[in-house]
Sequence to fold (166 residues):
Amino acid sequence: MSPATMSTQSPIDFISQSDEQTRLAGEHLGSACRGGEVFWLSGPLGAGKTVLTQGIARGLGIEKTVTSPTFTVLKEYAGRLNLYHFDFYRLETQTRDPWAEFSDYLQPDAVCVVEWAEHGEEFLGERYLRVNLRYISSGKRAIQLVAYGSEYFDLLRRFQAMAFRA
Ligand SMILES: Nc1ncnc2c1ncn2[C@@H]1O[C@H](COP(=O)(O)OP(=O)(O)O)[C@@H](O)[C@H]1O
Ligand SMILES: [Mg+2]
Fold:
């Protein structure tokens, strides 16, 4: 992993060369969490959203294997902080009010990760970490971390200290 620039905390851009590298980046994000965080993951099918979430879970001390919640919309995992893993891919087919449900999960001792943020932009609050994943080639992905809210700048500083230390 090599950061495009070390001086700015947001956005952070880097290339992941393997799924394990993406998982490791996720693990650092998870380790940097203090509770109440929201991650909005954006990128096409196969971009690595679920792989990154598996790493976030690892960083939250979750031992259970994280799998895609595509057909269930939400999966919950218990850890150092609880993980609520959403997938909004099929959100338009849901009949219930997703925001009323989503806001219930914004808890100080939990972390919310949402795949397919682009299917739920209208539910986006003002403070979150946006993660844009882009397919480059079979093993390579471009990952961009964008902070919205001062606490996410702080989170990215902690992330950077772990991910890019010499
Ligand atoms: N650098 C990489 N980062 C993440 N996934 C990668 C990478 N290289 C290859 N892959 C593969 O791409 C796929 C990503 O799948 P997944 O995380 O389920 O995508 P999404 O949730 O975005 O649809 C996995 O099969 C993974 O092994
Ligand atoms: Mg997925």
Residues 150-163 form the longest helix (14 residues). Confidence is low (pLDDT under 50) at residues 1-7. The helical segments are 19-31, 49-59, 98-104, 150-163. Residues 17 and 81 are 28 Å apart (CA to CA).
